[in-house]
């Protein structure tokens, strides 16, 4: 705070010897020492109070940050953020399915695809139909 060197102390001592009588000088030095001690204690107390107030302000700021982080830590919103790509994909599929189909897109395009010239395609096999089985005959030879 105040830096007083030996030269300044010597000047102060010489001025004090000239101004004050020698018999009052010990009492004066004692009073000055007590005042300096009180000033140092007051400065120390003030610094301690300032440091304490600073620590309390830091604690309150830390508590406010912690409170905000706890309030922001919503597990439901974290899950929603995680599943957001899946949700957008589902929304895209839903709009694609429910979108009206244009009449041009509904008409089938003529498919004139000829088989390749080098490949031999076997003729279509006719579907087998069950042969008509004769009705069972009675003993007298008539059909039922």
Concise description?
By secondary structure, this protein is mainly α.
Descriptive account of the structure:
- With 144 residues, the chain is mostly helical.
- The protein contains 4 helices and no strands.
- The protein has a domain at 6-98.
- The radius of gyration is 54 Å and the shape is rod-shaped.
Features:
mainly alpha, about 140 residues, single chain
User: What proportion of the residues is helical, as a percent range?
Assistant: 55-70%
- Structural class per helix/strand content? mainly alpha
Cα separation of the termini? 133 Å
The biggest beta sheet reads: none
Strand-and-helix sequence, N→C?
HHHH
Q: Report the count of strand segments.
A: 0
Helix count, DSSP H or I runs of 4 or more residues: 4
Q: Spans with pLDDT under 50 lasting ≥5 residues?
A: none
SSE topology:
Blueprint: H1 6-19, H2 25-72, H3 75-98, H4 103-106
